Amino acid sequence: MLTLHHLNNSRSQRILWLLEELGVEYKIEFYQRDSQTNLAPDSLRAVHPLGRSPVLTTPHGPIAESGAIVEYLVRHHASESFAVPQDPEALQQYWFWLHFAEGSLMPPLVANLVLEKARQKGSKPFFIKPVTNKLIDGILNAYYGPNLAQSLRYVESYLSKNTWFAGNEPTGADVQMIFPLESLVASGRAKDFSAIQGYVKRVHAREAYKAALEKGGEYAYA
After folding, report:
1. Is 122 left (phi over 0), alpha (psi -120 to 50) or beta?
2. CA 5 → CA 32, 58, 131, 178, 181, distances in Å?
3. What are the Cα distances from residue 69, in Å, to 8, 29, 79, 122, 175?
4. Which of 12, 93, 153, 162 is exposed most, by the fewest CB atoms within 10 A?
5. Band (80; pLDDT cuts 50, 70, 90)
6. Would you call 91 exposed, middle or buried from its count of C-beta atoms within 10 A (0-12, 13-18, 19+)?
7. Per-residue pLDDT averaged across 174-179, rounded?
């Protein structure tokens, strides 16, 4: 029996979607973020030393990291749907987007969110705040902001010509890409990117995605 250790408002929601698409039998163990730190609870460390979600308990032991979990599930449980593409061009896109999601898109997205939260919290004493804000603006303008904008333009361009990320049907690449894109749409950062918005709507309209939402509970990005 597979068990998904599911944290609210986290990357584990996309693993729920994949599990539903594959139609495999699984259980869910629920965890809630700490109300003060917004981090995963310490109880997750009993499942995996990193104490982060998602973690999937399998007959071969626990496995962490979304990409690794996607590859495990696809290898062991995919048949016609959500299988690794056989077409060489689609396969190359599959590999790229599977790793682009966490390797290129998520780091600047998370950095932007963290730095914006730091700006909102302000500094003490109050006269330090202008200095802190200037520092944050410098970091965002010099690196994270342009990096994120470039990635979004590239994704938008690709989705304007393609329905899915790797071929004519959704794959594990789409499972990886949905979390950053739906979080961008939910936050309003993708308001000028119609193809990205349309893609997120397509995923959210799938019956398996709706079932995953119903089973997963609180989720801020759908």
Report:
1. left
2. 11, 11, 41, 19, 22
3. 18, 16, 16, 38, 11
4. 153
5. confident
6. middle
7. 98
